[in-house]
Structures
1.
Amino acid sequence: MLPFSAGAVEPDEILDDPVLEARAREISKDLRCVVCQNQDIDSSNAGVARDLRLLVRERLVAGDTDAEVVDFVQARYGDFVLLKPPFKPETYPLWLAPGVFFLIGTGAVFTVLRSSRKRAVEGTLSDDEEGTIAALLDDEAGEKS
């Protein structure tokens, strides 16, 4: 059943050895299709993803460990090919950007809320102002009668 569980893996790509095939599937879950960008290579129908799947299987058949296969692909395509890139200076923006955007959004929400509260307080009338307005309205009502 395992060989038929992936979406884009073609029958001619599947290895005869079920242990190697299972290892290839595990490695493929962590490799990004460089065309589709948010899909692992097992789920992508892109030609590059197929080439990567074949490359992974070729390296496994050659006797590489899982880490060696990932290192080989990473050396060829860079950190971008990893769905979970390492935390290092080159990838700091990638890892830290969501937190920065969250803080900016939270700050914007608090600023808007504070501004609306200030407007609500400024919008209320003092007792003197209410008395003046009531007197003007009474004068106007008296003139109409």
Note: The two ends are 92 Å apart (CA to CA).
2.
Amino acid sequence: MQAATHPIGLYLKVWLLLFVLSTFSYLVDFFHVAGYLRWMLILLLMVAKAGLIVAVFMHLRWERAALIYVVLAPPACLLVLAWLMWLESGYTYFTRLLYFR
């Protein structure tokens, strides 16, 4: 079975896009963006770069859907669980303030 080959131009375009995203990530700190906007931008750029790397350089884009789900489903489940814990933390903090003065 012959391995699929991809044009070098694709890798160069992705490399350039990763360079641009890294530059934006650097500019977030350079312009002293603060607060929730800073963390949202940093996490968004981080996820975009990781997605590009996994999709193109690790060839996940060209795999079967079953393999993609096996790789991406566990982190998605962990993100949902972390979001649920974040929601619960607000309730816990509120009840501690209310009852443990």
Note: The chain has two domains: 1-62, 63-101.
3.
Amino acid sequence: MSWQAYTDNLIGTGKIDKAAIYSRAGDSLWAASGGLNLPSNEILEIAQGFENPSGLQSTGLHVQGQKFMLIRADDRSIYGRHEAEGVVCVRTKQTILVTHYPSGVQAGEATKIVEQLADYLIGVSY
């Protein structure tokens, strides 16, 4: 399966409206759906946030110029919320999944879908 198919499948769930897969270092975009393409400073901010979330905690999480309130940040997952929308970022062995869910979708529904894909990728050594 191509990387593009993974992001397209996330969109196909109806719970995610934008998705991208970046290299673990955040230095290259592997696939994107729904128009999600982060400026280099935003993906690097996310990549560094997995190692040290203090920057995200102090300035918030930024995705496509929108500031999201940080809900969770650890070495695997970063979650953010802005009004009724949110972002779910999950790091695997070789990738960073960055997703956005629209208003009307419960955070737990979106989180479960993205975390399951991350578990699968980790299971196949990605």
Note: Helices lie at 3-12, 40-51, 54-59, 107-123.
